[in-house]
Structures are given as structure tokens and as C-alpha cells.
TrEMBL record:
One of its GO terms (biological process) is phosphorelay signal transduction system. InterPro entries: CheY-like_superfamily, Sig_transdc_resp-reg_receiver. Residues 4-128 form the Response regulatory domain. Signal peptide: none annotated. This is Response regulatory domain-containing protein. Residues 137-165 are annotated as: Disordered. Residues 143-165 have a biased composition (Basic and acidic residues). It comes from Rhodothalassium salexigens DSM 2132.
């Protein structure tokens, strides 16, 4: 499979096994950067679509531009990347407030560190094989946050269904 994966990770001891697992799974190329700023400054080649990443995996602990600010820039079209580029955040601390913040900034998936390559690969494979619909609204831009398959009612209206009378 020819899917370019970008890994933004400051720790070489975390990045090396992940890159190996990604390549073993058939993802090529796998490009590693130590910071979001480094990625944004080096990844602006004119061949554009040929180098567009299929997914970006970014560590919470990177220096410089932080992952949530990076996600905001991508989702608002303030970078050279497609707004719908899947983003996976990796973090040592993954309490509910951090997961909610990541989701609200348009992060597709969150993986807890220490990483298990199989868990990351399962999420990555799912994102690439079955991308979520992309939502653009005044309050939110990013992947559809609903995870369950809840078909819309025949009227097409979801709001107020649980409101009394």
C-alpha cells in the first residue's frame, strides 16, 4: 500500500519501533520529524498531492507548535495540508479532559503511551480504510465525532428528540 505516514515524535526510542512497525505493515513512506514546526517548514514541496500524508501521528510532548494548535491550523485550512487529513495524537496522560479537548480540536484518534504498535496500527488502518465524514460548521471543523451508527430519522431532524413535548 502506498500511504505516506508522517510521525512527529521527539523521542527516538519511541519513533524507531513505530516506524519499523508501520513499514512492516506496508505503509510507505514513513517520514519522521522531531517537531510540528520542523514538519511544516520542510514539507512544503511543490509536488503537493504526491507527498500528501495519508495520516499524521503527532506526540503530545513535541516542542514548538503544540498538537492541538496544529490540529486547529490544519482543520481551518491554515496549512498546506488537506483539512480532512487524519490526525492521531499520542500522549502519556490521556484523562477524559485531554481526550475531549483533542476531539474538540479535530483530532481523529488518541493513543495512550506507552504505545503498543498493534493498537496504533488498528486505529490507523481503520482511519484509512473507513474515513469518517468531515464536518465544517461555525462551531466545529473536523471528523464527525459520532462513533455509533445511528441513522437519521425519516424527517432528517435529530434535534429535540429527547426533549419533552
Amino acid at each position: 500500500m502506498t500511504h505516506r505516514i508522517v510521525l512527529i515524535e521527539t523521542q527516538q526510542d519511541v519513533a524507531s519501533p513505530l516506524m519499523r512497525a508501520l513499514r512492516d505493515q506496508g505503509y510507505t513512506p514513513v517520514d519522521h520529524y522531531y517537531s510540528v514546526d520542523g514538519f511544516l517548514s520542510q514539507d512544503t514541496s511543490p509536488d503537493g498531492a504526491d507527498r500528501a500524508p495519508s495520516c499524521i501521528i503527532v506526540a503530545q510532548e513535541v516542542k514548538g507548535l503544540k498538537p492541538l494548535a496544529f490540529a486547529d491550523r490544519v482543520r481551518r485550512g491554515k496549512t498546506h495540508l488537506a483539512r480532512a487529513t487524519p490526525l492521531i495524537l499520542t500522549a502519556y496522560l490521556t484523562d477524559i479532559s485531554q481526550i475531549t479537548a483533542a476531539r474538540d480540536h479535530g483530532i481523529d484518534e488518541v493513543c495512550a503511551k506507552p504505545l503498543r504498535p498493534n493498537n496504533l496500527l488498528a486505529k490507523l488502518n481503520q482511519l484509512i480504510a473507513n474515513p469518517r465524514p468531515f464536518v465544517i460548521s461555525r462551531q466545529y471543523t473536523g471528523p464527525d465525532r459520532r462513533r455509533h451508527n445511528d441513522p437519521a430519522p425519516a424527517t432528517g431532524e435529530r434535534r429535540g428528540q429527547s426533549d419533552p413535548g
